[in-house]
């Protein structure tokens, strides 16, 4: 026998619906602008930004997939497409024959360096400029709380 669903009340549903609408609208507009401004897909941008900001241009494949919350197959396909365009390379890991590193190429560095200023301007225009510092601080606390909660929940 299945448990009775814990339906959302009207206030919870309104908050959830607003969050989803905002997220999808924001990500959709940012994705379209990245494509228009740089010719890169949003997925290209996410991979390159994470590699250059957190990995020093080089990261283990599985660590990168986990960082961006993608399945291994999605990351593999994305890296393959980017490698064909010369944005990244895949290098075997000498310590672990099954592991691999994803490494940004000079062309990948140029692409992210050209796209990042346009992207951050759009983030500022569409998101940051709509909020004051207190709103940003509150939103950061809420997001951190939800992320910490999710980390404790089974996947």
Q: Could you write a compact summary of the structure shown?
A:
The protein is mainly alpha-helical and 155 residues long.
Note down, in words, how this protein is organized.
By secondary structure, this protein is mainly alpha-helical. The chain has a single domain, classed as Winged helix-like DNA-binding domain superfamily/Winged helix DNA-binding domain (Arc Repressor Mutant, subunit A, Orthogonal Bundle), CATH 1.10.10.10. The protein has helices at residues 10-38, 42-54, 61-67, 72-84, 106-126, 133-152; strands at residues 58-60, 88-93, 96-104. The chain has a three-stranded antiparallel beta sheet. Helix 3 (61-67) packs across helix 4. The longest helix is centred in the first third of the chain and has 29 residues, at 10-38. The protein is globular and about 50 Å long.
Side-by-side strand order of the widest sheet: 1-3-2
- Number of DSSP strand runs: 3
Our count of domains comes out at 1
**Whole-angstrom Rg:** 19 Å
Just give the CATH class: Mainly Alpha
Corresponding CATH architecture: Orthogonal Bundle
Secondary-structure element order, N to C: HHEHHEEHH
